[in-house]
Specification:
The complex is a heterodimer. By secondary structure, chain A is mainly β. Chain A has a single domain, classed as Methanol Dehydrogenase, Chain A. Chain A contains 5 helices and 40 strands. Chain A has a 6-stranded mixed beta sheet, with no helix packed on it. In chain A, strand 32 and strand 33 form a beta hairpin. In chain A, 63% of the residues are buried. Chain B is mostly helical. Chain B has a single domain, classed as Cytochrome Bc1 Complex, Chain D, domain 2 (Orthogonal Bundle). Chain B contains 8 helices and 5 strands, in the order αββααααββααβα. A 3-stranded mixed beta sheet of chain B has the order 1-2-5. In chain B, strand 3 and strand 4 form a beta hairpin. In chain B, helix 2 packs across helix 7. The chains are: A mainly beta, B mainly alpha. Chains A and B meet through strand 31 and helix 5 of A and helix 2, strand 4 and helix 6 of B.
Amino acid sequence: MKKVLSSACLVAAAAMLVPQAASANDELLVMQDNPAWYVMPTLDYANTRYSKLSQINADNVGDLQVAWTFSTGVLRGHEGAPLVIGDTMYVHTPFPNNVYALDLSADGRVKWKYEPKQDPDTIPVMCCDTVNRGVAYGDGKIILHQADTTVVALDANTGEVAWTVTNGDPKKGETGTSAPMVVKDKVIIGISGGEFGVRGSITAYNLADGKLAWRAYSMGPDSDTLMDPEKTTHLGKPVGKDSGITTWEGDQWKIGGGTTWGWYAYDPEADLIYYGTGNPSTWNPSQRPGDNRWSMTIFARDPDDGMAKWVYQMTPHDEWDYDGVNEMILVDMQVKGEDRKALVHFDRNGFGYTMDRLTGELLVAEKFDPAVNWATHVDMKTGRPQVVSKYSTSQNGEDVNTTGICPAALGTKDQQPAAFSPRTGLFYVPTNHVCMDYEPFRVSYTAGQPYVGATLSMYPAPGGDHLGNFIAWDADKGEIVWSNPEPFSVWSGALATAGDVVFYGTLEGYLKAVDAKTGRELYRFKTPSGIIGNVMTYVQGGKQYVAVLSGIGGWAGIGLAAGLTEDTAGLGAVGAYKALSNYTQLGGQLTVFTLPN
Amino acid sequence: MRPCAKHVSLLLAAALVAALGLLLPSGGGAWAQDEEKPYQIKDGVVDWYTFSGFRRYHAECHVCHGPDGLGSSFAPALTETMKTMSYEDYLEIVVNGRENVGTTAQSKMPGFGENRNVMCFIDDIYAYLMARADGVLGRGRPKKEAKPAEAKERDEDCMS
């Protein structure tokens, strides 16, 4: 039986394949290029979620069958995807955040299980279900980011704890949901809790021993945000001194939100990491006048010392909860006839952004759902969205119910990651097609208690009979190429492959395969519970497998499980929506597919 | 945080309720009897306090208990639970929280005793939930009467 390669072997292998490789971090650069494995939650550092595997392809995917299944033993929202390294699969669960190492050469026999003990007090300070978006691998260790913010490094072979470190304090509402990313000799860890007045930060720990290397806050003085007033730029201009304080009133920045619970990307050539920050706290915009920098911002930072190279704030002074945390997809492509090192980002606010990832220049910003109405467009010079007064919860003020805002707070897209295929040049994006009413009101802050200050109701976008779309996007033109309506929001991460197939899951529980060129459905299978996980693929014993976690939950599970408000007359087809619970129930299962022999 | 008279008295009240509950397991305190309903609904228009309960519920509680009290995969439907729950028990649970531990899932409701966004409006939230549980108030945002001066005063006193 084969075993997981030891880190020494991997480094040796890396050295053989890439003679110029200098340090241990190059291990992952080599491993991510092996399509048989799935070594990071984002598939690769560029977040393309594109697999070079083509054994399963548009011609034969219709024959797909279930090869084996695995119950995780936890009945909550299952986000993220397992990893595969060699013959071992690493499966994570929602709270209590168990990790299983499964032997793929022995029908998924459990090699080891790690079961952390966590204080159940953590559960109620998780805003949107007790989700976890997966583990990371680096230097022979599996890195788990627990709900209580403990970061644990486990020996990939034995599951033994190598080190642990505490990233935050759940008693202040700080929690962990995001997947770590290993970059060079560091582990990048985010934080959740934007609905609890947490001040967001991103932290790098040494992969070797868990020692804190640097922490960069989303707001605060330059010493906290790790910004250089002269060298850090916003759309090409220096940000100036203490830019993380000057657009806030009083001490509000100290409970300012801007959490970092999404995905991280890394460009090894530019040596920059990319991520986005979440909503400013509270949801009542009148209590925090100003742009609230640097919430709702795309960051490019140096992974060695955390210093920010450039930033771009997409939604200054948020009034709708349009967190900017969604993934940054790094693609080298032509934009307006020019070769660019691009960054493509589908934001909660409904705009699809294409930027130059080296300079932070804004190249394209277009709506990726025609329903988006809160802003007419993004001013390409200032980068500011042109807000429509009617939909401004800030202009309308406290205690006023602003109606018909599209998208809803869920965003046109939440964290569920999109995929990119270099074969078609298209981005495949899971989206929501939901609008809302939003009434902000005064709230008071208590550490560890919800700090929301708004009431929302959500309903289908006008005229439609569906709550989601799965779309193909041209990031140069800023246009939808094709769009498949889905009865519910698409809350599952997509996977594109060299077989010209795109996979995604649905809230009813279907795994679907569609033609990458046309979007035509080629295959569907109903798994035991709704899918909010990300589809992944790997090779074992010469065969390609496709796997996905089922387990309804997350924000979608909360917002939709009881059905949407039916009495918002005139918006959508009243009564056309049945509760999601008519389609699916709680679950926790991995389903693995392959072609018949 | 500055002391808040109502807030403190509510905490004390809840403690007292808990103590009484031990002494008098049959319940039946002053609140429990079939007095007037805690809400008023005339021609489909609710009193301000019930509306206030709707609003605060959907900021503090709905993430777990679902829109309109209908429950979610995370916590029970209060439209059902409140049919049988006494006001005393409601107070005790909101102030102190509760925990359910099982083999496949753990759930925990936090105590809101120190949270003014809940405690200042605890009777409003109760009124809203009872109206939902009694089946006299539908889903979504209710039509409301104007905010009375005394409610403005009350909110300012308690929240500041």
